[in-house]
Fold:
Amino acid sequence: MTRIINLRQARKQRARDERRAEGDNNAARFGEAKPLRDARKAEAERVERKHDAHRRDD
Structure:
């Protein structure tokens, strides 16, 4: 037999799950110490500079 679901409840649960995932993501990004945040930013900038250095000029 199939399981009957209430679409309204399913929609609300999906919205709750999305908000929780967004909150977890924000907690991970903004809840870290400043030295870790600075290190992550410096690494991203280093990768960007390395990527730009390999571009071809046409």
About this structure: The mean pLDDT is 92. Residues 7-53 form one domain. The chain has one domain: 7-53. The radius of gyration is 21 Å.
